[in-house]
Amino acid sequence: ELFDAAAGDREAALAALKAELQADRGSPLAVHATQAVFGEGPLDPPLLFVGEQPGDEEDLKGRPFVGPAGRLFDGALEKAGITRGECYLTNAVKHFKFTPTGKRRIHQSPDAGDIAHYRPFLRREIEIVAPRLVVTLGATALRAMMGRAIPVTKARGEMMRTPEGLPVFPTVHPSYLLRLPDPDSREREYGRFVEDLKRAHREVM
Ligand code: URA
């Protein structure tokens, strides 16, 4: 055990990790982002969700999943019968990566180097929070957890283990659903996403 089981010590360890991340200038993303966005939620949660990176709104507010993808995700959680109190939400990459174009900031996907840079932070965060199950949302999160690129289409909906033996359940990213142009496929994929969330939830209940 790296940490005293007492929750106070772990809250302090989490706060120290958050401060360390906020001061970190080791990634080029830290230069342009407003701030680092750390995870939120209870210790010892049934589920810990790993997203990709903060978006525009998350970058400004300093909180994960408060933008359009977060709102869609909130609705899907509710539909799956999962309460916020059961979830810790965080991201694989902790700074917003974007291209400035006039007044809009266009999301850029993190690359392997970005993922590798934040991986030790994510690992320590998960170690302190100690969830029963890690659910990865999309390819970046799955890569960050597994240490290699795995197609989400193949892995989704099945329990896996990280090289360190941590249980992981992969599914798609909510932004993928927002990007689907056709309403029918969006509805179908949303339904599949909710089913994945239910299955992950059943694994830990
Ligand atoms: N998308 C993510 O992956 N994470 C967030 O926090 C918001 C949007």
Automatic annotation (TrEMBL):
<comment type="similarity">
    <text>Belongs to the uracil-DNA glycosylase (UDG) superfamily. Type 4 (UDGa) family.</text>
</comment>
<feature type="domain" description="Uracil-DNA glycosylase-like">
    <location>
        <begin position="38"/>
        <end position="198"/>
    </location>
</feature>
<protein>
    <recommendedName>
        <fullName>Type-4 uracil-DNA glycosylase</fullName>
    </recommendedName>
</protein>
